[in-house]
C-alpha cells in the first residue's frame, strides 16, 4: 500500500492562495467520493480548514497523480500552486498526519480545534466509504497520538486558539473591550469560542447572525446576546465596533461599498473586522477606508508568535513522542504485513505434506489408526522444523526497516503470492518447491 499526502497550509501559502483550494463543509462528502474514485486511489481523506487543505490517500500500487485531482476538482492549473504545495509519502506522510492531529503543525501550536476538524473529516470520509480498512487504522492511531501528546506534555496547557488570538488582537487595538459592541457572523465552533473570550474580556453587547437562524439564536442565548436574521445582516453591522466573521461563504460578503455605508451610518466612528474565514469574508479593499481596520487569518500570525516561544520546549517533547509513535506504527504495520506471508508459507507446506502422504499411501498398505497418527505427527514435525528458520527470520525482519528485502527473498524463494507471475499452487505437478 502506497501512502501519499499532498497539500498547502499557512506556512507555504498566503490566504489568497489557500482560499482558492478551500472546500466548504457541505461539499466535503462529494469531494471525498470523487477523491476515492480518482484513478489509482483506493481510499482518501480530505482535511480542509482555514489554515490547510490536505489530501491523504492510499493506493495499492505506485504513487498516484494527486496534482491531477487538484486540477480536475478545483479547475486550477497545478503549476500555479506548485511553489506552495508539499507532498509526503509513506513514513513522512504518517509523521505529518500525526503532527497535524497533535496540533504541532498549527498556526497556534497546541490549539485544540484541529483535532476536532480532523475527526469531522474522518467521520465524513467513513460515512461515504472513502476511508476503510487501509486508512482507518492510521487515522485512528493519529487520534491516539494526539491524545498522548496532550496528556504527556503541556503543549496545549493554556487556552490559545485562533479565536482567542483574534480577541487578544482586538483588545490591543481598542485598549479594552469593555462597553464594546461585537457582531459575530457565522455560528461554528470558532465563532462560539470567540464569543466566550469576548464575554470574558467585558464585551457589553453581542450580536450573532448565521444563515441558519436557529443556530444564531442558540449561540446568542449562551452569551446573553441578540440573534439577527442573515437577511438583515447589512442593516445591523454598523451597530458593532468589532466584527468577527467566519461564514464559509464561497466569496466575500463585505465589500468596499458596504464599508462606506457602515462608516456613514456610524459618523466615521472606527470599525474593526477580524476575518477568520477561508475563503475570506471581507474584501481586503475595506482596509483602504479610513476608519476601518481589517485583519485576516494570516495577520493573526504576528499575535501568535508570542505564544510559540512559550511552548517551544513542550513542542520538542511532543515531537519526540510523534517520532516514537511513527516508528511504532511502522513496525506494527511490517509485522502485520508479514503474517499473511507466514500463513501462505505454512499452507503451501501443508499442501505438499498432504500430497506426499497421499502419493506414498498406496505403497505403505493398509495402516492402523495408530500408524496413521504416527505418520501425521512425523511429517508435521518435519515441516515444522523446516519452516522454523524462515518464519523466525520473517518475524525478526518485520522489526527491521529493511524487512522488505528479506520478505521479497522469501516470497520469491517459495513462490508465494504469485511472485513467479503465477497464482499460488500452479508450480510443478508434485507441488515440490525445488
Description:
The structure is a single chain. With 434 residues, the protein is of the alpha/beta class. It contains 16 helices and ten strands. Strand 6 (205-210), helix 10 and strand 7 (226-229) form a beta-alpha-beta unit. The longest helix is centred in the C-terminal third of the chain and has 53 residues, at 312-364. The protein starts with a strand and ends in a 21-residue tail after the last helix.
Give a quick rundown of the structure.
This protein is α/β, with parallel strands linked by helices and 434 residues long. The chain has helices spanning 15-21, 28-37, 66-74, 78-81, 91-101, 113-128, 135-152, 162-174, 189-200, 213-222, 233-236, 256-265, 301-310, 312-364, 369-397, 403-413; strands spanning 2-9, 43-48, 52-59, 86-89, 181-185, 205-210, 226-229, 242-245, 271-275, 292-296.
